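Quality-control log, excerpt.
Job 1 of 2 completed; input and output follow.
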Amino acid sequence: MDCIFCKIINGEIPSKKIYEDDMVYAFYDINPEAPVHFLVIPKKHIKSANYINNENSKYISHIFEIINKLASELNIDKAGYRVVNNCGVDGGQTVEHLHFHVLGGRELKWPPG
């Protein structure tokens, strides 16, 4: 499979990892849009949010548990943060592997763009 996130998970492409367990991998974004900007991805290749189903939805709840944990550890939980999932071309998805951006450390405006 020629998926950049699968290659990051497998250690074929370097990343600045902040968390890993048997289900998820979290790492800092290489082009941060906020003082704190990391991604949390399932280790199982799921193409996008359109492919979440009964068999893989456990990854999503676990991802949000890890987001909660990391937001607290990185001290963005009190002031607030944003969780973003881009789905499909019009949604801005550039990597076809489900991923969640977590941004914090500054006031985030709405709409995002």
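Job 2 of 2 completed; input and output follow.
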Amino acid sequence: MEAATVDEYLQRMPEPFGTALREVRDRLVAAIPDVEQVISYRVPIFRYRGRGLVGLSATAKECSLLLMSPSAAKTLAGSLDEGSISGATVHFDPAHPLSEATVRRIVDLRIREVDAALDER
């Protein structure tokens, strides 16, 4: 059965993944104005202005922050102090959740992208 809410998704995560993802989720919620938390494509997605900003997931070995933007991944490549980027995803060890500073940097970049796309309409 798929999770219906972000909280349900995170509760179903085995440890240490659940704890790591909850920490990053809390940092995302604090950083994204008027955030909306939904499940989409079976993972938690954090919306800003009605658009998917970032998502969270985990594999058997690591946690992931889904950037949902190849251009953001390109901008951040080689410049993050933690995690690693593959495709449009930041991967991190569950023993070392992404810091508040890293989450805020990613969120700020994605917010600028969404604002620019919506404001040019």
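Post-run check on job 2. Residues 100-119 form the longest helix (20 residues).
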